[in-house]
Specification:
- With 364 residues, this protein is α/β, with parallel strands linked by helices.
- The chain starts with 14 loop residues before the first helix and ends with a helix.
- Helix 3 packs across helix 4, helix 3 packs across helix 7 and helix 9 runs parallel beside helix 12.
- The longest helix is centred in the C-terminal third of the chain and has 19 residues.
- Helix 4 links the parallel strand 2 and strand 3.
- The chain is 37% helix and 14% strand.
- The chain binds pyridoxal-5'-phosphate.
- Belongs to the DegT/DnrJ/EryC1 family.
- InterPro entries: DegT/StrS_aminotransferase, PyrdxlP-dep_Trfase, PyrdxlP-dep_Trfase_major, PyrdxlP-dep_Trfase_small.
Length: 364
C-alpha cells in the first residue's frame, strides 16, 4: 500500500527543530512570563533586520495587522479601498470592519491584481489600495507605487503569504506605507499558533500601531485612542525566534522542489504551470497549477493518496457577505481551474517525483 502524501503536515518538523521548540517552551514556562517580554522584542528586532525595516510591530495575526494598518491611516466610513478579487477573505474583510468599502479589481494571468485595470476602478473616494502578493509572488511594486503616489493613495501590502520574497532587494511589505505579515502555521515562516506583524517606515505610524494593538495605551493605564488586544503571545514569539534561523534553508528546499515540479511537468501541455518561481520576488509559498480538468485531476490525485488544496474556490466578490454585481471573469475562471500541489520543506524528493508521475498518468 502506498503512503499518503499530505498537503502539509507540520508534525514533520525535523526532530532537532522539535527539540529546540520544546526547550524554548520550557524556558518560557520557567520564566513565567507569557505576555510581552524579551522574546517579543527579540522577534521584532530580528524581523526588522531580515526585512530591513526600521519599525516592526508584532501582533496577534495577519488579519489584525491589516485592520490595524487601515485604522492607523484613519481609513473608514466614506472611503474606498481597492482590493483584489482573488485573495484570502481577510483582505476584503478588514476593509468592511473599519467601515470602508472594498472596490474589487480583477486579476492578471498570475492571479495578482491587474495593474492595467487600476484607472478603471479608482474613484474620488479611493484612499488606499491593498496589493496581495498571492502565493508568494510579488505584485510589480514599482509600477503600483508610481500609480498610487500620483493619486495620493495609501498602499498597504498584504504580504501574509510573501515573507521571504524580495523585489529589487526590497522585501515584500517594504514598498508600501505599511506591510502586513501572517505567521499562521502553514506560512513559510509559521508559528505554532496565530501570529502576525506589521512593518512601516514612519515612526509615528509605528507608535500608533503599538497603541492600537494594546488597547490604545501610550503607557500603562493611559488610553489615548481606541485600540484592541492584538498582542502576540510570548510563546509564539519565542517559537518564531527558534524557527527564524532555519528559514533560509527551508526556502532553498522550497525552491529546489519547485524546480523539480517545473522540470518534470513542463511537457504536459494541458497543464499551466506557475511563473516566476525562480525569482527572488517569489517565495514559493504555494505551487499552483491550473487546468480546465481541475476537479477530475484533484479526484485522481486523491485516489492516488495525494492531498491537494484550492486557493481559493470562490473570488471574494462572489461570496454572499461581499456580493458585488460587477464581473470578474479572470478571477472566476481561475477559481475553477487552480489546484495547489503539496510544496513544503518536509516533502521528500521521492514524494515529489511520485506526484509528478501521477500527474503524467492522468487521462481526461
Ligand atoms: C493573503 C492573506 N491575507 C491575510 C491573511 C490573514 O492572516 P491570518 O490568518 O494570520 O489572520 C492570510 C492568511 O491566511 C492570507 O493568506
Amino acid at each position: 500500500m502506498i503512503s499518503k502524501i499530505p498537503f502539509l503536515n507540520l508534525a514533520r518538523f525535523p526532530e532537532p527543530v522539535k527539540e529546540d521548540l520544546r526547550s524554548k517552551f520550557d524556558q518560557i514556562l520557567d520564566k513565567g512570563i507569557f505576555s510581552g517580554s524579551d522574546e517579543v522584542l527579540l522577534l521584532e528586532k530580528q524581523l526588522g533586520e531580515y526585512l530591513d525595516s526600521p519599525h516592526v510591530v508584532s501582533c496577534a495575526n495577519g488579519t489584525d495587522a491589516l485592520e490595524m494598518a487601515l485604522r492607523a491611516l484613519e481609513i473608514g466610513i466614506g472611503d474606498d479601498v481597492i482590493v483584489p478579487a482573488m485573495s484570502w477573505v481577510s483582505t476584503a474583510e478588514v476593509v468592511l470592519l473599519v467601515g470602508a468599502k472594498p472596490i474589487f479589481i480583477d486579476t492578471d494571468d498570475n492571479g495578482l491584481l491587474d495593474l492595467n485595470l487600476l484607472d478603471q476602478v479608482v474613484t474620488s473616494k479611493t484612499k488606499a489600495i491593498i496589493p496581495v502578493h498571492l502565493y508568494g509572488k510579488m505584485v510589480d511594486m514599482e509600477t503600483l507605487m508610481a500609480w498610487a503616489r500620483k493619486r495620493n493613495c495609501k498602499v498597504i501590502e498584504d504580504a501574509a503569504q510573501a515573507f521571504g520574497a524580495f523585489q529589487n532587494k526590497i522585501s515584500a511589505g517594504m514598498y508600501g506605507d505599511m506591510g502586513c505579515f501572517s505567521f499562521y502555521p502553514s506560512k513559510n515562516l509559521g508559528a505554532l499558533g496565530e501570529a502576525g506583524a506589521l512593518v512601516c517606515k514612519d515612526k509615528s505610524i509605528a507608535e500608533k500601531l503599538k497603541m492600537l494593538r494594546n488597547h490604545g495605551q501610550i503607557q500603562r493605564d493611559k488610553h489615548i485612542i481606541i485600540g484592541r488586544n492584538s498582542r502576540i503571545d510570548t510563546l509564539q514569539a519565542g517559537f518564531l525566534n527558534v524557527l527564524l534561523p532555519y528559514f533560509g534553508a527551508w526556502q532553498d528546499r522550497r525552491k529546489f522542489i519547485a524546480q523539480i515540479y517545473l522540470d518534470q511537468l513542463k511537457a504536459l501541455d494541458w497543464l499551466k504551470l506557475p511563473l516566476g518561481l525562480e525569482s527572488p520576488s517569489h517565495n514559493v509559498h504555494l505551487f499552483v497549477i491550473s487546468t480546465t480538468f481541475r476537479d477530475q485531476l484533484k479526484q485522481f490525485l486523491k485516489e492516488n493518496e495525494i492531498e491537494t488544496a484550492i486557493h481559493y474556490p470562490l473570488p471574494i466578490p462572489l461570496m454572499s457577505p461581499y456580493k458585488d454585481p460587477k464581473e470578474f471573469p479572470k478571477s472566476l475562471k481561475m477559481s475553477k481551474e487552480i489546484l495547489s500541489l503539496p510544496l513544503n520543506p518536509w516533502l521528500s524528493d521521492e514524494e515529489v517525483y511520485r506526484i509528478c508521475d501521477v500527474l503524467r498518468r492522468f487521462k481526461f
